[in-house]
Structure prediction request, 102 residues.
Amino acid sequence: MDDIIKKIIEVEKVCSEDIENAGLEYKKKIESLRRELENKKAQAEAEILESNKKRYKSAVEEANEHVKQELNEINKEKDLLIQDRELCEAVKERIISIVLGT
Prediction:
């Protein structure tokens, strides 16, 4: 009877060690896969950020170009208004000189 109990205990011990070893092995595999997935996630995030950075930079450059064009148009309009004002003043002065001269 003692032999049977010893054999059962030995079998249980061996099975327990096998189960523990298998658990450790799977734990290592799971940890390795977790690290691999974390690296892939970090890489994907970096690619997304870089892509967004490029789109943002392009949008800013496009907006800057639009603003420059608008400023050029405003400056042209301002120059035309200044020229028109000078013309109006010249006409007023000429009219005044004609009226006062007669």
